Amino acid sequence: MSLTIQEIPTKDAPMALLLIADPSEDKIRSYLPGSKCFVASREGVVVGACVVQALGVGAHELMAIAVHPDHQRAGYGTALLKHVIELFRASGARRLEVGTGTFGYQLAFYQRQGFRVDHIDRDFFVLNYPEPIFEDGIQLFDMLRLTLRYPEQEA
Ligand SMILES: CC(C)(COP(=O)(O)OP(=O)(O)OC[C@H]1O[C@@H](n2cnc3c(N)ncnc32)[C@H](O)[C@@H]1OP(=O)(O)O)[C@@H](O)C(=O)NCCC(=O)NCCS
After folding, report:
1. How many domains does the chain contain in total?
2. 90 lies in which domain range?
């Protein structure tokens, strides 16, 4: 597997891919400016993407991460996530946060890289999206907040 991961200008963010992770294009467009976008490519074809937004001093949030359905379960999502984790570690970040509405396999995907459950943002998806969101036939209501702390930066 030869995977290339690079940061690209947010204006070139692959919207179709990001919509797999976040169903609202308006919402994605609202956080893209000021965020960083990373893409994973194989033989010149973009197979995965993620967006990271600065939250404040030393804190960042992974706003969306997705791998094209034809390429899932091949380790690309993990490679992209690890790349981002190490990049922000090297930049001196204290923590990386992520919110997920799906408490299924995505939870293990994040926990495997050291993310820990922080809290539940109750009714987040009802209050922040104009339309109900369904995943695997289940309506999303609450957002599970996870945090990866960089212990070497914690004073
Ligand atoms: C989450 C996502 C980015 C993971 O990317 P990926 O390239 O498929 O993940 P990896 O191949 O690195 O898989 C890592 C582990 O995650 C779990 N996993 C990933 N996809 C899974 C699936 N469809 N079903 C069950 N487990 C899955 C597995 O434990 C997997 O390890 P394994 O294959 O050794 O069992 C990708 O599945 C995706 O785009 N999902 C839809 C969008 C989404 O849910 N984004 C996150 C929003 S919170």
Report:
1. 1
2. 3-153
User: Ligand 1: does its nearest atom lie under 6 Å from the Cβ of 1?
Assistant: no
Q: How far is the CA of 155 from the centre of ligand 1 (A)?
A: 33
pTM: 0.94
- What pLDDT shows up at residue 102? 83
Q: CATH number of the domain at 83, please.
A: 3.40.630.30
> Which atom of ligand 1 approaches the CA of 99 most closely?
48
d(CA 8, CA 27) in angstroms, rounded, equals 19
Write the pLDDT tens digit of every residue in 2-58: 999 999 999 999 999 999 999 899 999 999 999 999 999 999 999 999 999 999 889
Q: What are phi and psi of 27, to 5 degrees?
A: -65, -45
Cα maximum dimension of the chain: 44
Among residues 91, 82, 74, the alpha carbon closest in space to that of 112 is found at 82
